[in-house]
Design brief:
- This protein is of the alpha/beta class.
- 38% of the residues lie in helices and 12% in strands.
- It is built from 15 helices and 14 strands.
- The strands form four sheets. Strands 1-2-3-4-5-7-11-12 form an eight-stranded parallel beta barrel, surrounded by five helices.
- Strand 11, helix 14 and strand 12 form a beta-alpha-beta unit.
- The chain is globular.
Length: 489
């Protein structure tokens, strides 16, 4: 793509994204408490991760060390700066600030740690984009309160928000309230929100079909989602009150899908899939109210949302400033149960015969990103950030230490081109922070082998390695992409 064909504005935020539970490590250092992520074992594409109520002696928990960003953040941020990052999306570990989640006083050591990270970003002119809760509900809140199923957690979350909004005033301007909040519209999302199933089944049991969700469990899950909506809206209002310069966004997992055929049945089924998977959460965040289609869905699925006094007003007064999303793949919707299925980002869908898939079965669809961005912007008309996107692959380290990941470069290039096209379509896209800009623990499998980064980290699935960092070919490609503002790719 040459300069004449690039649509990116000069103030576009190029960057990368990580999450504390997948990169930070130091899970019991500096006063940090345990999160639900710290109770997730390692897995693989064929052997699913397990959620364990205790820490089992013979199991490997990859979040406990991860890539040790906790101790290596200065080196890593310097590498991000070398690439030319304008924005770094990261998350704060809730249990590093409030170890149990419901503590009266915050952990000062945790507060000062993140202050140092933000100051390091600012040193290089990198704007932090901070996710407040990214799949790391405090384990104590899961065990004692059943996570977000309990409304009392709203106040614990807001206490946490007040602390970080106040402590990092002037250091952090851009915030995301919950990572991929719409995963709670799926059965596996309950585990991510700290709701521990009575039979100890986990998210992977739901994904594989081994576990079936009861009507009661579904009702609990959607009420947990409602509690997150209320918490998010109140956090938005609080952020604006503490610092009018704060900008707060939602973060939605991009569940973009197409009808498998042009039959009316498939088209209606896909419309419903898009409504519940994407627009339900987006509408509440951006419009401040539940959409028209929610009532019938709730009625037909035995869901009764427990609206408390003031909830409707809170949702309306806490609408987000921008919309952010993850985008990895698309799927197809079919009413034919015999059609081959494939995995995507936390979802199942029918395999698209026109598209190829990654080694982990995720369909690669750059044009789908342009389509989806247009759908989102047409519906909401607020600025958009693509805050996760990338290719998980098993990278080969050559004898001389080089890593020729041309497949990742090609994936990224094609998606950058389609973002440019979306901007020319009129979409107000303001940021791109590809996922796992440095290799980190995979959320879906717990592997290190499934690598996304521009920066290689020497560590394997068993936790062995030096943790040394090295630049892949994609590092230099992305550096060039940023330098040219997407022109020279």
């Amino acid at each position: 793509m040459n300069k004449a064909h690039s649509g990116f504005p000069e103030n576009f935020f190029w960057g990368g994204a990580t999450a504390a539970n997948q990169c930070e490590g130091a899970f019991d250092v500096g006063g940090k408490g345990a999160s639900i992520a710290d109770h997730m074992t390692v897995g693989s594409r064929t052997s699913p991760r397990r959620f364990t109520k205790g820490i089992e002696q013979n199991e490997f928990y990859p979040s406990h060390e991860a890539i040790d960003f906790y101790h290596c953040y200065k080196e890593d941020i310097a590498l991000f700066a070398e690439m030319g990052f304008k924005m770094f999306r990261m998350s704060i570990g809730w249990t590093r600030i409030y170890p149990n989640g419901d503590d009266v006083e915050p952990n000062r050591e945790g507060i000062e740690y993140y202050r140092s990270v933000f100051e390091e970003c600012k040193k290089y002119g990198i704007e932090p984009l901070v996710t407040i809760s990214h799949y790391e509900m405090p384990y104590h809140l899961a065990e004692a309160y059943n996570g977000w199923a309990d409304r009392r957690v709203i106040d614990f979350y807001l206490n946490y928000c007040k602390t970080i909004f106040t402590e990092y005033k002037g250091l952090v301007k851009y915030w995301l309230t919950f990572n991929e909040i719409n995963v709670l519209t799926f059965p596996f999302g309950g585990v991510m929100a700290g709701i521990i199933p009575e039979d100890n089944s986990n998210m992977f049991d739901f994904l594989s079909g081994k576990a079936k969700e009861s009507t009661e469990a579904k009702n609990i899950r959607f009420n947990a989602l409602h509690n997150q909506f209320v918490a998010s809206a109140k956090a938005v209002k609080m952020a604006h009150e503490i610092n009018p310069d704060n900008k707060v966004g939602c973060m939605i997992a991009g569940m973009c899908s197409y009808p498998y055929t042009c039959s009316p049945e498939d088209i209606l089924a896909n419309q419903k899939s898009m409504e519940i998977g994407n627009w339900l959460c987006g509408d509440v965040h951006v419009r401040g109210e539940y959409p028209h289609f929610a009532k019938r869905y709730f009625d037909e699925n035995g869901i009764a949302i427990n609206f408390a006094d003031g909830d409707a007003e809170a949702l309306k007064s806490g609408c987000v400033d921008f919309y952010s999303l993850s985008y990895y793949a698309t799927g197809c919707t079919s009413t034919d149960q015999n059609v081959l299925k494939t995995s995507g980002n936390m979802m199942m869908g029918v395999k698209n015969p026109y598209l190829k898939a990654s080694d982990w079965g995720w369909v690669i669809d750059p044009e789908g990103l342009r389509y989806f961005l247009n759908e989102i912007y047409g519906r909401y008309r607020i600025p958009i950030m693509v805050v996760e996107n990338g290719l998980g692959a098993d990278d080969l380290v050559e004898a001389d230490g080089s890593i020729h990941d041309e497949y990742r470069i090609e994936y990224m290039r094609r998606h950058v081109v389609q973002m440019s096209e979306a901007i020319k379509d009129g979409v107000d896209l303001i940021a791109y922070t590809p996922w796992g800009c440095i290799d980190l623990v995979s959320a879906s499998t717990g592997e290190m082998k499934k690598r996304y980064g521009f920066i290689y980290v020497d560590k394997d699935n068993e936790g062995k390695g030096t943790l040394n960092r090295s630049r892949k070919d994609s590092f230099y490609w992305y550096k060039k992409c940023i330098e040219s503002n997407g022109y020279d790719i």
